[in-house]
Amino acid sequence: MLVQIYIEIVTTGRFECCDGKYACVLEVQRNGHPVSRTHYGAWTDISIQRLQLRACITAMEHIIKESEVEIHINAPALAAAFEHKTLQNEGKNADLWNRLMSLCEPYLVTVIHEKRNICTPALREELKDRPIPSSPDKNMKQETI
Question: What does the pLDDT read at residue 143?
Answer without folding.
Answer: 36
